[in-house]
Amino acid sequence: MDLTPLKAALADVVAIPVTPFAGDGTIDTQAHRVLLRRMLDGGVRILTPNGNTGEFYALAPEERRAVTELTIEEAGGRATILVGVGHDVPTAVAAAEHARDAGAEMVMVHQPVHPYVSQDGWIDYHRAIAEAVPGLGVVPYIRNPHLDGACLSVLADSCPNVIGVKYAVPDAARFAAFARDAGLDRFVWVAGLAELYAPAYFSAGATGFTSGLVNIAPGVSLAMLEALRAGDHPAAMKVWEQIRRFEELRADRQSANNVTVVKEALASLGLCGRDVRPPSRVLPESQRAEVADQVAGWSI
Question: What is the value of pTM for the model shown?
Answer without folding.
Answer: 0.96
